[in-house]
From TrEMBL:
Keywords: ATP-binding, Cytoplasm, Kinase, Nucleotide-binding, Transferase. Gene3D superfamilies: P-loop containing nucleotide triphosphate hydrolases. Belongs to the cytidylate kinase family. Type 1 subfamily. It comes from Roseovarius phycicola. It comes from the Bacteria. It catalyses: dCMP + ATP = dCDP + ADP; CMP + ATP = CDP + ADP. Its EC number is 2.7.4.25. Signal peptide: none annotated. The keyword ATP-binding applies. Its main location: cytoplasm. This is Cytidylate kinase. ATP binds at residues 9-17. One of its GO terms (molecular function) is kinase activity. It is found in: Cytoplasm.
Length: 203
């Protein structure tokens, strides 16, 4: 049976961490839809046309280990504002969402555009400063040379572009449950998300 969990929110709010944990606990498949935009953006950095890149994505492109860099994140957010690029990625995401056995998708427009009928919708947020600190720790841990101010301004530029675009902007679905993780540990955030999934499964 299909059961879709839609998890949206701004950059570095904890969407991926929560999604992976929910997928693990309930035995659902997980799709990080940001990777589709990152892989598309990554190819434009080599000069490939954005729409050509989106239309010809392969599983290999999503596996590349250089998709988590700040440059690729900005390129992702630029190609994500092109309506034709978004349209080229819709069918794949919807098919993934309705697979039997359940699916968790995280991104910006899952609860609003990709899966408006998702059984569970969460909108995960945290303060800009907390998100920037979390992403900074992650980047420093991977050996990137950067600092708090750079990471904060990168997140804010992306969030502003993602929220302002005309097609599928970053925003909460009206029926999403808000999860503000500013003062939550990963364990607390995961527990809150799992409780919401269990509640909907039981109803
Ligand atoms: O997917 P998204 O960009 O929303 O965020 P993420 O990659 O899941 O989380 C960004 C970083 O914040 C990771 O290093 C998480 O371990 C960390 N995190 C945290 O410290 N506390 C939370 N409640 C959630 C995530
Ligand atoms: O991990 P983080 O939250 O920093 O970024 P991501 O989820 O990997 O997304 C990278 C970029 O892709 C975002 O800034 C958005 O511009 C775009 N994106 C989108 O437009 N729609 C989605 N469903 C997922 C990502």
């Amino acid at each position: 049976m299909a059961f879709t969990v839609a998890i949206d929110g701004p950059a570095a709010a904890g969407k991926g961490t929560i999604s992976r944990a929910v997928a693990d606990k309930f035995g659902f498949a997980h799709l990080d839809t940001g990777l589709l935009y990152r892989a598309t953006g990554r190819r434009t950095l080599d000069g490939t046309d954005a729409l050509d890149a989106a239309r010809s994505l392969t599983p290999h492109d999503l596996d590349a280990d250089d998709l988590r860099t700040p440059d690729v994140a900005q390129a992702a957010s630029r190609v994500a504002a092109i309506p034709e690029v978004r349209a080229a990625l819709v069918d794949f995401q919807r098919a993934f969402a309705r697979r039997s056995g359940g699916a968790v998708l995280d991104g910006r427009d899952i609860g609003t555009v990709i899966c408006p009928d998702a059984e569970v919708k969460l909108f995960v947020t945290a303060s800009d400063e907390v998100r920037a600190q979390r992403r900074l720790d992650e980047l420093l841990g991977k050996g990137h040379e950067t600092d708090f101010e750079t990471v904060l301004s990168d997140l804010q530029t992306r969030d502003a572009r993602d929220s302002a675009r005309a097609t599928a902007p970053l925003k909460s679905a009206e029926d999403a449950v808000m999860l503000d993780t500013t003062h939550m540990s990963i364990e607390e955030a995961v527990a809150a998300a799992c409780a919401e999934v269990a509640r909907k499964q039981a109803s």
